[in-house]
């Protein structure tokens, strides 16, 4: 069984394993403890419980060890079976410990705002709207947390997932014998495989401020943005930067200042001025690419996604919070 105290004495190895220094781990643990106590208490008081509080089996690992297992899972993406061998637990117990702690860990971290679902109806071009967009209740919170925010860079990223299977009671599609009807929904032509897509919004300094809900790999970046509720959450003065996948953004949100590289016209060429402008835009947009690269150093966000799709959002939320924690350390900002 891995000894946490011995690993902490080797600070460099500890950071490579979980992505945090021992000091950052201890600070995170102190924030996590009261949140875990509240969440665990609520679960014990849930409806339908027969046993009194305190009865039943207890956790074999204490909270610090469970936090270490969870961070190790996010960083290295070991299977539950391997983690069970390392910590002398059954794979099912490891799974329950990790997925029970992830939502509470996201609260303890400086995680970005995260949409739980995508809008059923995407934002349309302003001229076709018949009513004003619904105001988001978290706008005030957004302004309070980021009062100096002037620019946001958006970009989409994908993670491989398993091929959809035929569910019980469903019939295969007509064109692809033996395949489910929603096979094409998750197939990304760009990646050449089935994927899950997430839209990441970052500041020019490199802080993650928003994550969209999980979308299928086939969904276009522009469609994810229009359904993510991000634009309506941003203050009016904030500029939105995007890549060529967001061409036409100024038509959907004419009241916003949007900056998107010029796209080469069909059977035409860009002028020298347009090329230079695209180069300057890319120098700003590269921050989003670097942030996504830092997130994918946590293998739970890079490798083949082995969990249920409903757990994709909370895993990315925790990883984004860990990246923000490291960002605060680099800028020497207070983490309390």
Mean pLDDT: 86
What is the number of strand segments? 8
Low-confidence stretches: 129-140, 174-178
Question: What structural category do the secondary elements indicate?
Answer: alpha/beta
Helical content stands at 40-55%
- Work out the oligomeric state of the chains in this entry: single chain
Share in β-strands? 5-15%
Overall geometry: globular
Largest sheet: 8 strands, mixed
Total count of helical runs of at least 4 residues: 13
Secondary-structure element order, as H and E? HHHHHHEHEHEEEEHHEHEHH
- End-to-end distance, in Å? 32 Å
Mind telling me the C-alpha Rg?
Answer: 22 Å
Q: Number of domains in the coordinates?
A: 2
């Amino acid at each position: 069984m891995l000894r946490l105290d011995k690993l902490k004495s080797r600070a460099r190895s500890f950071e490579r394993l979980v992505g945090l220094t021992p000091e950052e781990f201890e600070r995170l643990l102190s924030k996590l403890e009261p949140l875990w106590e509240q969440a665990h208490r609520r679960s014990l008081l849930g409806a339908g419980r027969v046993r009194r509080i305190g009865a039943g089996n207890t956790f074999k690992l204490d909270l610090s060890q469970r936090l270490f297992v969870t961070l190790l899972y996010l960083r290295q993406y070991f299977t539950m079976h391997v983690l069970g061998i390392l910590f002398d637990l059954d794979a099912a117990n490891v799974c329950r410990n990790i997925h029970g702690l992830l939502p509470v860990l996201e609260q303890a971290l400086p995680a970005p705002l995260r949409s739980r679902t995508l809008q059923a109806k995407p934002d349309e071009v302003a001229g076709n709207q018949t009513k004003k967009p619904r105001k988001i209740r978290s706008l005030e919170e957004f302004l309070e947390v980021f009062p100096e925010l002037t620019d946001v860079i958006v970009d989409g990223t994908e993670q491989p997932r398993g091929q959809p299977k035929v569910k019980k009671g469903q019939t295969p599609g007509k064109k692809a014998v033996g395949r489910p009807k929603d096979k094409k929904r998750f197939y990304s032509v760009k990646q050449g495989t089935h994927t899950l897509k997430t839209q990441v919004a970052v500041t020019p300094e490199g802080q993650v401020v928003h994550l969209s809900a999980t979308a299928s790999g086939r969904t276009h970046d522009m469609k994810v943005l229009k359904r993510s509720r991000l634009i309506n959450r941003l203050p009016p003065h904030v500029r939105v930067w995007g890549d060529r996948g967001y061409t036409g953004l100024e038509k959907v949100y004419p009241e916003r200042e949007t900056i998107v590289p010029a796209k080469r016209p069909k059977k035409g060429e860009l002028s020298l001025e347009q090329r230079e402008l695209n180069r300057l835009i890319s120098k700003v947009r590269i921050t989003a690419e670097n942030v996504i690269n830092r997130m994918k150093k946590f293998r739970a966000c890079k490798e083949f996604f082995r969990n249920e799709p409903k757990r994709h959002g909370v895993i990315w939320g925790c990883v984004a919070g860990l990246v923000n924690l490291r960002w605060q350390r680099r800028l020497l900002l207070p983490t309390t």
